[in-house]
Amino acid sequence: MGLNRRDFLQRLGLTLVSLGIVDRWSWRNIDRYAHALSTFKGRKFALLIGINGYSDADNLAGCLTDVRIQKQVLMHQFGFAPEDILTLTDREASRDNIFTMFQKDLKELLTPDDFLFVHFSGYGTRINLSANQSQVAAIMPVDGVIGQSKTTINNAIAVATLEGLMRSLNPAQAALVLDTSFDPVSAAGHHYWRGRTYPKTLSAGFNPSETAIAEQLQYILAQQKLGKKSILRLMAAQRGWGTEVQLNDSAAGLFTVSLARCVTALNPQVTMAEAQGFLSFCYRQVQLRSELLQLNAPKASPLYGLLPVKTTLPAAGQIVATNANNLDLLFSGLEPEIYQAIAANSQFQTAGSDAVPIRLTSKTGIFGQGKTSGTMPTAGSTIQEKLRIYPRNLTLKIALGNNLSRIERVDATSAFAGIVGVANISNPPEWADYVFDAGYQLFSVTGDALPGLIPLEENEAIKSSVDRLQPIFEQLLALKWLRLLVNETSARLPMTVGLDRLEPKRSPLAERQTPQAIGRSPSRTDLKVLLGEPLLYHFNNAGTQPLYFLGFAQSSKQELILLTPQAGLMVPPSSLKKVTFEFEPLRPLGTWHTYWIGSDRPFKQFQLLLDKLFAGLEATPTKIEKPLPLVLALLKDLHLAPTDTNDNKENYRLSSENWVTSRFVYEVTEML
């Protein structure tokens, strides 16, 4: 079902009210903006540019994948015709070809009634347009640097020039996505994910034609009065660095993957304000600074500048192609960490009353292949998760940092081989959870040292360092399992968990509802709470059977705290009793994650082990010194035993019909 003008107008107005900006937008302006979007009847064109291979710098790995992802999103979510999506990849994406595409190909296609979408994935940099100007952001075409030594020419294209080319075509609406970055990253850092800033210093002067083109564009835009024509701009990094995420033997831009998640898992109608909160949440999960993102558009506008051609439930992904009973799938709705961990034979189904079952057979990046035993679905159909399968022997993936010597890497590989079932070595393009680097310490994949670790002993050998860290590895593996249990998009249990502030008066902070409703985006704002202030979680079970919950909190020092009492929480159907849980934020200050894990069955094995470890536990919250055995017992409680006993021994099978895990992330501070 499409979104009509009346529905969108109502939703847009409610969004503005919720954002507190209705005073800045009169209802007449809201109506005008909604009318422009809902009555858009022009054609839709896209130019997708992706460059992995640069002759003068190390190759990138995920830019062509970004092009593939965006093409599928544009076709299946926003109704772009395949023939109207133009691409320039690798050697094709030269400076001249990019300009020709705007000044000839697109110019011949576009009319003032049309929509233009431009995406670039590749290296970015900063250049000087003149001796008197500060450096400006620029993208690097495949021939971004020409010549050698004294004859070198800087061939980069200023972002402002790119926007000028778009404005000169005079489209009705336009959007520009830049999955790149412009500022260098320290070579001494401990990061594992690759950044997209051009790695060399551009000492050469700018290309004289860049200034000439800029002046020509200024003249054209002034003559045609197009200089102020707005362009929706989405940038992975205004300041700082964009990055590639590595999973399933492939790579992709974190920003592109996160944008696709917004319109797949969050809401196809997601607004800019909702997307900002969601993207910030995604970046904080991997310890990237969310303020580096730049979404330059009205807060109430759709993320891609267009309304979707169909309104669907939040989904795990979509079918991109069919062949016999084989399906090509894009899992744009799953968190990358979850998708890289799930095993073959995990089950999905098409959305709707006549759902078609799909069995996952293989994975590459965030794409995958599947088979169906039912009626062949059509390309573009959304798919939802039904049964999540994880291997029981799942471990932490530890990458070896670039600052380790060759001998140290050999010693580290040998040392990690002795930690069976907890951690093993990962190398690009494999997924990594953490980096083991100089100082024999652990770092996040984005280069931040993990807080709360035991200090390095002087002259410590690598083996003793790894042995010293083993309890930390077990603790981090337990936390990884909790992250892998989050299923807010796919859970079918009818449940709402809300978080409220109690003082000075009760007010809502966040809410998670399952199953998610069409057109309703869960709140993902940056939450800050005061140390020791009274907060309240409340639970509403909209089903007919009782649900059972356990609560955990992960501190900023990677500690795990059990929130709920020994028996957990039992939440009866809403008509019988309302359940609340009051608590006060604890030290240490910093980012905390709270997980509420619910099931339609009691957590018997978890409670048996808890009774053994904490006999007569009454006071909560309780810090768990060795959380891994308890988390594994919890997984056994959630496990849906199959008839195949071999599979029962090798995998955990988690049904979306029987379990739900909601996550809340907030900053504990001493001052708001």
CATH architectural arrangement of the largest domain: 3-Layer(aba) Sandwich
The helical percent reads 25-40%
CATH topology label of the largest domain: Rossmann fold
Write down the domain tally: 5
Shape label: globular
The overall pLDDT average reads 86
The beta-strand count equals 35
Q: Structural class of the secondary structure composition?
A: alpha+beta
CATH class of the largest domain: Alpha Beta
- Output the number of helix runs: 14
Protein traits:
Rossmann fold; Thrombin, subunit H; alpha+beta; seven-stranded mixed beta sheet; 5 domains; disordered N terminus; globular; 672 residues; 27% helix; six-stranded mixed beta sheet
Short description:
The chain has 672 residues and is of the alpha+beta class. The chain is 27% helix and 27% strand. Strands 26, 28, 29, 30, 32, 33 and 35 form a seven-stranded mixed beta sheet that branches.
Detailed description of the structure:
With 672 residues, the chain is of the alpha+beta class. It folds into 5 domains: 1-39; 41-296, Rossmann fold (3-Layer(aba) Sandwich); 317-391, Thrombin, subunit H (Beta Barrel); 397-478, no CATH class; 495-669, no CATH class. The chain is built from 14 helices and 35 strands. The strands form 8 sheets. Strands 26, 28, 29, 30, 32, 33 and 35 form a 7-stranded mixed sheet that branches. Strands 2-1-3-9-10-13 form a 6-stranded mixed sheet, sandwiched between helices. A 6-stranded antiparallel beta barrel has the order 14-15-18-17-16-19. Mean pLDDT is 86; it is low at 1-35.
